[in-house]
Amino acid sequence: MTERFFGHIIDGEEVPSADGGNFEVWNPWTQDVWAHAAEGGAEDAARAVASSRRAFDEGPWPQLGRAERAAAIHRLADLMEQRADELATLDTTNMGKPFAQAKHDVARSVWNFRFFADHQRDHRGEVYPMDSGHHTYSEYGPAGVVAAISPWNFPLMMASWKVAPAIAWGNTCIIKPSEDTPASVTMLGRLAAEAGLPPGVLNVLNGQGTPAGSSLTGDDRVDRVTFTGSSATGKRVMASAASHLAPVSLELGGKGANIVFDDADLDNAVHWAVEAIFRNSGQVCLAGSRLFVGSGIYSEFMARFVEAAEALPIGDPFDPATKFSSLASKKHFDKVSSYLEGVPDDGGKVVTGGIDESGRWLVRPTIITGLPLTAPAYCEEIFGPVCVVNRFESEEEAVALANDTRYGLNAMLFTENLSRAHRVASRLRAGTVWVNCFFIRDLRTPFGGAGDSGVGREGGDFSREFFTEPKAVVMQIQR
Ligand code: NAD
Hints:
This protein is of the alpha/beta class. The chain is about 40% helix and about 25% strand. It has helices spanning about 40-55, 65-80, 85-95, 100-120, 155-170, 185-195, 210-215, 230-240, 265-280, 300-310, 330-340, 375-380, 395-405, 420-425, 460-465, and strands at about 5, 10, 15, 20-25, 30-40, 125-130, 135-140, 145-150, 170-175, 200-205, 225-230, 250, 255-260, 290-295, 350-355, 365-370, 385-390, 405-410, 410-415, 430-435, 450, 455, 470-475. Helix 2 (about 65-80) packs antiparallel against helix 4 and helix 3 (about 85-95) crosses helix 4. The radius of gyration is 23 Å and the shape is globular. Nicotinamide-adenine-dinucleotide binds next to helix 7 and helix 8.
């Protein structure tokens, strides 16, 4: 047993599993077990739900004034800021992302808490004057107990997207981080206790999808289920929550289209094409993994894109020079590798990259051309640093290619033609479209996907809709 241990955080205390079970936590760069975490079972999940239920039903959290609740969440954000290096170290060690990116993720997580704390504090309701001599006003009370389940690619940040709006709106929450990355979210639970959040307002349950996650989603004491992860798991989560009619918010996979028109600013388009598929080693739901390039610039664009991909500094994620590192786990390395192994048989050409020969769980920045539109590597989410490229002749063809997918999370387009930018953005089937940029997010705006990319939207008032139980109060004004 290593010294480092991540327990569950239940009722403000860090506790082991009821049966004493635990699992190994890996460092994917060194390929060592560097910690253990509590292996949550049905009994631990039931205990966490009971704690959050009590904290909701008996208070004080849901009844606190908005300013007081905001202040408590800002105290948590302050602690996260003070301990940012520690949190980022946990994510880099546990997941292998470059340390500078992990620091950036912590800053964005802090901002999520601050944003939603203030959003609920400053929120205004609506009043509907009625001709009948009444008026109706809306009230947005907390929904109850929220089960939140998060993936491993942005361990702290994905959890914060869920936890922050959930608790800001007066709910209590149990977060189950991915079994691959329990570290930073467990620390978040410790910091919540230190910040003085009442016991049970934020519980952390560690463990596998089944039984830990599925015990939460199927528990009829849970009022909301918010999930980020793969489309396949999302369907299971939705079915489980349906057993007790808990509303679900699902942020699922993607196969983002990136369209570069002939009139694009090439420096900008190449820069973002590289970021869009190779940031976080491509382990990004929003990755621009299908790239469509106008035939007039195809040769020049490809030469520059390949050169930029090959220039990315690869190495130890704690080395400040590193921009690109290993994949997050052996299991994930095997999955990405299996897609690459199928490419030659499907008629694709690996222009650069491929599986690294070092024995690390490393796939180099990979660019593939020539794949048929039905090949698995072309149409399925690989969730790795693998970009498939096609050329197009017309705007019509670019839009058709981009929309030819079961996913609908995001798309990007690069053009200097303003009319085309608006026209194409409007025709793309995607929850977010970036024009001449990538990865910019305003937390007030809707975020989510269509088709296999999810159900519902999060962000600003969209999060309020999900995490509250809106009520209409009808007042008689005239007798
Ligand atoms: P995953 O679906 O394997 O696991 C996600 C989480 O679900 C983990 O915590 C896991 O333990 C849990 N889980 C697994 N089975 C469960 C079950 N039956 N019941 C309840 N919980 C269960 O996904 P992953 O590999 O961790 O993450 C990668 C996926 O996440 C990719 O598809 C990626 O696109 C997606 N993702 C989407 C977004 C978004 O905002 N749309 C953001 C990040 C990642």
